[in-house]
Amino acid sequence: MTSLDTKVVRAALLDETDRLAELYADADPETAIPTCPDWTLANLVAHVGGAHRWAAAMIAAQTTESLDFAQVPDGRRPHDVAEAVAWLRDGARVLIEAVDATGPEVPVWTTLRQVRPSEWWIRRLLHEATAHRCDALLALNREIDLDPALAADGISELLGLMAVRFPTGEPPLDDGRSLTLHASDDADHWRIRKAGNTIEWDDDTAPTTTGVEATAADLYLVMLRRLPPEQPRVQVTGDRDVLTTWLDRTKF
Prior knowledge:
Helices cover 47% and strands 13% of the residues. It has seven helices and seven strands, in the order αααββααββββαβα. The strands form two sheets. The chain has a five-stranded mixed beta sheet with strand order 5-4-3-6-7. α1 (6-26) runs parallel beside α4 (120-139) and α2 (41-61) runs antiparallel to α4. The two termini are 23 Å apart.
C-alpha cells in the first residue's frame, strides 16, 4: 500500500491544484460536472479553492472548532477567469504557508469532527484536488492522467476517512464480508475487513469475499463512485453485492 512522504504530498498538492487551474483557464466555466450533480466547472473550482482558504484560516487561528466560511479571508472565487486561476493556484500555497507558520503538529479541527495535526489538511486537500480534477477531466471528455502512486495514496487516505466516520452511519462491510482492491499497474494491494464498529486493512493476499482489480487510478475512481465497476477494464470477482453495498454506504 503506497504511503507518500510529507514532501511528496506537499509537492503533489501544488501540482494537482495547478493542473486543475490550467483546465479551468482553457474551458467553459459553465461546463456541467456530471459526477457532481448541479455543479459547473466554476462551482468545482470555487469548492476546491475555497477549501484551501478555509483550512488555512482554521490552521492560522489554531481553532479546534469548525470555522464559519463567511469568516474566511478571500474565500470566494473571483468571477474573472484569469483572476480565479491565480486565486486557485495561490490557495494551495496559502494552506502550506499556514501549516508552516502555525506548526505541522498543532491540533486543529478537521472534517472528521476530530482534532488532528494541521499537516493532516495538506493530504486531505491534495485528494480533494485529485478527485475533483478527475471530475473536470471526465466532464471535458479528457483522459484521466492521475499518477498511479498518487491514486494509490488516495485510496489509502479514503480508507482512513472511512475508518473514522461512515458517511451513512453504517459500516461499509457487513459481518463476515471482506474486500480486496488490487492495483494492476503498481501492485498496491488492500485487504479490507470489518473490525468491530470500524474497518481495518492490510496488504495481505489472503482470499476475501470480493476482489476488485484495475489500475490504481481506476480503482480510485471506482471507490469514489466516479467509474462504474461494470466497466470492462474493472475486474470484479466473488460476491459483487459486497462491492455494491460498500459503494452505497460510502457516499459523502
